[in-house]
Specification:
This protein is an alpha+beta fold. The chain has eight helices and 16 strands. Strands 6-7-5-14-15-16-13 form a seven-stranded mixed sheet, with helices on both faces. Strands 9-2-1-12-11-10 form a six-stranded mixed sheet. It is globular.
Length: 321
């Protein structure tokens, strides 16, 4: 490839795709570099991405002000991205944040409440009785309280969001290169990117947006701590889909659970295999870190962390009896 790009974005996931869209809107010559999702995870020996999913929570009410602010800005941009790309990815089903006991001032629910007020989020606080009345099919601890955010909170389909961002970037002149970058070198004032098939791409600047894989191609390593996590997808039949049709997304801080500090969930959603699943994931009290390429492959080729899956399944069956 003889073209020298103004900037090469390595990584076509949620961060890289967004960067390519914004950069290409500025009349820059942009190369968006990154492979497509593999058809078969078990036979794929290259990189994987975090956006191979159908549901990610989007909200403003968060204990961290920066997360809340970024969430608010992101939500405000969804309609424009959908309109320009013709791809729908945003589902404003609402978001529920639950704490088993919010009596402590530093509890995550109280922090999220303060952030919600500061950012003028469209939410209400529910006491234990209001929570049971509004969501009778969900089972929480006796003292549980919640923040119920409506407006445009809910979830996005990350696969479709990435497609939408890249579609707009291409319309704006970005060059989409469906290859894995394996090396970046600086020579004579330019960056030389080598792809997995041996081709080279020249760019004045490089934006690295390949997440946990950054250290796999950098000579000077970053202080990254990639976590290996598993989720549980529970298939939902037609009758249960109807019963849970107004289910919001959920973030629930657990109390005294030996394995999980918290869980999150996305309501029943259609997946590429044609089935509908309720998704639940969580935050391990003792994270599992991976660093080497072979550790990444072993993780993505595996059926998941059995210890984590058992804990998530237990919480799921308690949450939705």
């Amino acid at each position: 490839m003889n073209t020298t790009f103004d900037i090469a974005v390595i990584g076509n996931g949620m961060i890289g795709a967004a960067a390519s869209r914004y950069l290409s809107a500025s009349a820059l010559r942009v190369a968006a570099i990154g492979p497509s999702e593999p058809d078969n995870w078990q036979t794929h020996n290259g990189v994987f991405a975090s956006h191979y999913d159908q549901g990610r929570i989007t909200r403003i009410t968060d204990p961290d002000l920066v997360w809340g602010l970024l969430g608010k800005r992101s939500i405000a941009s969804y309609a424009e991205i959908e309109e320009k790309s013709g791809i729908r990815f945003h589902y404003p089903v609402g978001q529920l944040r639950v704490s088993p006991d919010s009596s402590a001032a530093v509890d995550s629910l109280n922090k999220a409440d303060a952030v919600g007020r500061q950012l003028a989020a469209p939410y209400v606080r529910l006491d234990r009785n209001q929570l049971r009345q509004r969501f009778p099919y969900l089972h929480f601890a006796e003292k549980a309280e919640a923040l119920w955010e409506e407006g445009n909170a809910g979830f996005i389909n990350p696969r479709l969001l990435v497609q939408a961002q890249l579609a707009i970037a291409e319309k704006q002149g970005a060059t989409l290169i469906r290859q894995e970058a394996v090396r970046v070198q600086r020579k004579n004032g330019a960056s030389i990117i080598t792809t997995q098939d041996g081709k080279t791409i020249r760019a004045a600047k490089v934006l690295l947006a390949n997440g946990a894989y950054a250290n796999h191609i950098l000579e000077r390593k970053l202080d990254l701590r990639p976590k290996a996590v598993s989720v549980v997808l529970a298939e939902v039949g037609e009758a249960e889909q109807k019963r849970l049709q107004d289910l919001p997304t959920l973030i629930w801080r657990l109390e005294n659970h030996p394995v999980l500090a918290s869980i999150y969930s996305v309501p029943p959603t259609a997946y590429p295999d044609g089935r509908v699943y309720f998704k639940i994931g969580g935050t391990l009290r003792t994270p599992v870190y991976i660093h080497k390429p072979e550790e990444f492959l072993a993780h993505f080729h595996s059926p998941g962390n059995a210890h984590e899956i058992a804990a998530l399944s237990e919480v799921l069956l308690d949450l939705l009896p």
